[in-house]
């Protein structure tokens, strides 16, 4: 048994040395190498590009979902030891908790305390929505990309490495055959004759060629599978986008509800500070420059949703309460409206005036 292991070790060491010599000679330009066909090379290049960009996209997506590098490392370690990740509050949830504590401290009966409670509760809901989005995104794109890299792509890399080993063995055998043929007609004082050496070298070459062809076919089949991987990644991309659409729609809905709640409290949300800057567009509406203007002394309820048609109009949501005043330009179709820090024209037909 020990003799068999020793022979196997010597044979493996000899093969490894032969590959090193072959690779060195190729780099020096003193030995030829077997080239694969153009189709195989194209498949290999596409595989390399797929590996590179999948790794980058995975890293970028994880950075978006978990901006804190320390937490990313922590999650990676928990995944490696197959242990459940710790439940951490998001920054939005921490902000919400502190706002709620501050609101209770100042008193729910005060305008400021009540507003803090409402905003804090909304921030907590936003944090929960963000957590759900992260979980969905991990399921839709992060986990499949990582599984591809650690499974299929790792297999391709391993088989391509094995193919390179078979290629070096094949080219080393070709070199031995060429050297053996060059020795024909000469006589060796010691060892087997050149004819015997050539026959053995040709036999080794046939075996090496068969092993190389078989490994090339296996590797080619794996490389051709990259097309199906791209199709799978495309589905992952669609699912990721759908997750983002749901997430932003939920956030938008929560913020609209919060805006309506704050407006219904009749809070002085915009006082127009001592700024001297001119009007600036913001989400399709303009913000007051802070210069003196007639006071918005009337309140109105929005009868139905209205999408602003120009940058000087306000977007309206059904049942929200806004402040309005006459524009002073003789236009009887519009009021000048104010909600929060936003000011702009609003059509009178969409409003029910509450303060006569």
UniProtKB/TrEMBL annotation:
Q: Which InterPro entries is this protein grouped with?
A: AH/BAR_dom_sf, BAR_dom, Endophilin_SH3RF, SH3-like_dom_sf, SH3_domain
CDD domains cross-referenced by the UniProt entry? BAR_Endophilin_B, SH3_Endophilin_B
Q: Which gene encodes it?
A: LOC113216021
Q: Which GO cellular component terms, listed alphabetically, does the Swiss-Prot or TrEMBL entry include?
A: cytoplasm; membrane
UniProt source species: Frankliniella occidentalis (Western flower thrips)
Q: Which SMART domains does its entry note?
A: BAR, SH3
Q: What is this protein called?
A: Endophilin-B1 isoform X1
Q: Which residues form the SH3 domain?
A: 295-356
Family classification? Belongs to the endophilin family.
List the taxonomic lineage.
Answer: Eukaryota, Metazoa, Ecdysozoa, Arthropoda, Hexapoda
Q: Where are the transmembrane segments?
A: none
Keyword Transmembrane, does the record have it? Answer: no
- Single biological process term from Gene Ontology: membrane organization
Residue ranges of domain BAR in the record: 25-271
Entry keywords, A to Z: SH3 domain
A Pfam family (short name) is BAR
């Amino acid at each position: 048994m020990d003799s068999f292991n020793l022979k196997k070790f010597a044979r493996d060491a000899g093969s490894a040395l032969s590959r090193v010599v072959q690779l060195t000679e190729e780099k020096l330009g003193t030995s030829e190498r077997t080239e694969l066909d153009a189709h195989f090379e194209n498949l290999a290049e596409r595989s390399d590009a797929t590996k590179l960009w999948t790794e980058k996209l995975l890293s970028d997506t994880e950075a978006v979902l978990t901006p804190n590098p320390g937490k990313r490392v922590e999650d990676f370690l928990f995944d490696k030891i197959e242990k459940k990740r710790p439940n951490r509050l998001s920054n939005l949830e921490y902000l919400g908790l502190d706002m709620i504590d501050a609101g209770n401290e100042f008193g729910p009966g005060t305008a400021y305390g009540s507003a803090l409670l409402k905003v804090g509760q909304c921030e907590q809901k936003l944090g929960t929505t963000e957590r759900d989005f992260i979980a969905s995104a991990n399921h839709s794109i992060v986990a499949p990309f990582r599984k591809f890299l650690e499974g299929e792509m790792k297999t391709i890399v391993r088989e391509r490495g094995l193919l390179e080993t078979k290629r070096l063995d094949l080219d080393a055998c070709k070199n031995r055959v060429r050297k053996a043929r060059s020795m024909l007609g000469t006589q060796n004082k010691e060892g087997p004759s050149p004819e015997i050496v050539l026959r053995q070298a040709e036999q080794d070459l046939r075996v090496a060629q068969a092993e190389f062809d078989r490994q090339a076919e296996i590797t080619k089949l794996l490389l051709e599978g990259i097309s199906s991987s791209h199709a799978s990644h495309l589905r992952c991309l669609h699912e990721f986008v759908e997750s983002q659409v749901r997430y932003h729609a939920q956030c938008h809905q929560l913020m609209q509800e919060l805006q309506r709640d704050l407006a219904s409290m009749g809070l002085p949300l915009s006082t127009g500070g001592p700024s001297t800057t001119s009007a600036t567009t913001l989400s399709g509406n303009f913000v007051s420059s802070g210069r003196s203007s007639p006071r918005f002394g009337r309140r109105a309820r929005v009868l139905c949703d209205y999408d602003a048609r120009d940058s000087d109009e306000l977007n309206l949501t059904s049942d929200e309460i806004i402040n309005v005043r006459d524009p002073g330009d003789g236009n009887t179709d519009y009021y000048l409206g104010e909600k929060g820090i936003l000011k702009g024209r609003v059509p009178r037909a969409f409003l029910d005036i509450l303060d006569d």
